[in-house]
Write a structure and sequence with these properties.
Elements (H helix, E strand, L loop, with lengths): L2 E7 L4 E7 L18 E7 L5 E7 L10 E6 L7 E8 L3 E2 L9 E4 L16 E2 L19 E2 L9 E4 L4 E2 L5 E6 L10 E4 L3 E2 L4 E3 L2 E5 L6 E2 L2 E4 L5 H5 L15 H14 L12 E6 L1
């Protein structure tokens, strides 16, 4: 694979142009499995080379040789260096395949060496994966199964992933502040290995990987759930108020009731909202 990444603007927002100089790239919008898509990986670092944030840029269509696409990103707080590189999740960053189209610049728009980074996909961000639950014909092809609006259900899975655990000691789950169940997820790897009770430290649930070898291809989370409708005080005959409904008038009513009452009234079972999973 060959690419060219050109910095167009750096004062204020970042704008880059990505050009395909080689074989075709599949857009994320034309595939079921995120591993088959080519995307722009964006990694922000502080002035000491510490990773602050990762983002992804999606091509709107399949990219043929000679096609280009412009992306715009904002600098996160504390970021001083940004590196742009094409990526296929859980497979390869393009530099690992010999592509020299990596672009790393500082806030002044000057090219600088890229800080040391982990190219092993050991940090799992839910927003980088694909959910195709609306496609009833092939629901098992989604990378995220049992998720809704970023929340897990009673049983939810990260599927069709590929993480090498050689030399890794723990799996850490970081949740956001919306964990209203107050429970600890039960974690199973590859449908066969259940992880022991975690230790909670520095805002993460840390599970030991002792005895596990090989690659993680699936992570299943079992969580207790809560239902906002049951806590809303609305009468049971209004239980049809669900964003899961295929009827747009019902979805409109849910949003209208939320505006009037100032709280979530959606009749849906929510688990926890995962910020990231780290294998280290």
């Amino acid at each position: 694979p060959r690419s060219e990444i050109t910095l167009m603007e750096w004062k204020g927002d970042l704008k880059v142009r990505v050009t395909n100089l080689g074989s075709p790239w599949l857009s994320i919008y034309s595939v079921w499995d995120v591993q088959k898509a080519v995307r722009l990986g964006v990694r922000f670092f502080d002035n000491k080379g510490n990773l602050i944030e990762e983002q992804r840029g999606n091509f709107g269509k399949n990219m043929l040789r000679g096609d280009n696409h412009d992306f715009t990103f904002s600098w996160p707080e504390g970021a001083e260096i940004v590196s742009f590189e094409l990526v296929q999740e859980f497979r390869n960053w393009f530099s690992q395949l010999g592509d020299t189209g990596v672009l790393t610049v500082n806030r002044q728009g000057k090219e600088v060496p890229c800080p040391e980074r982990d190219n092993g996909f050991h940090t799992l961000y839910p927003q980088f994966l694909i959910t195709r639950n609306e496609k009833e014909s092939l629901p098992d092809k989604s990378n995220l199964q049992g998720f809704s609006g970023g929340f897990t259900g009673a049983v939810s899975s990260y599927c069709h992933i590929n993480i090498n655990c050689e030399g890794k000691k723990e799996l850490a789950i970081k949740m956001n502040d919306l964990n209203k169940t107050g429970t600890t997820p039960i974690v199973t790897l590859n449908d066969t290995v259940s992880l022991k009770e975690p230790v909670f430290q520095e805002g993460e649930y840390c599970y030991s990987l002792q005895g596990f070898e090989g690659r993680i291809e699936k992570i299943t989370l079992e969580c207790e759930t809560y239902n906002p409708f049951e806590e809303s005080g609305l009468p049971k005959w209004m239980s049809f108020l669900s964003l899961d409904s295929n009827l747009k008038p019902v979805q409109f009513m849910v949003h209208r009731m939320e505006d009037l009452l100032g709280k979530n009234v959606n009749n849906h079972e929510y688990g926890v909202q995962i910020e990231r999973i780290v294998i280290r």
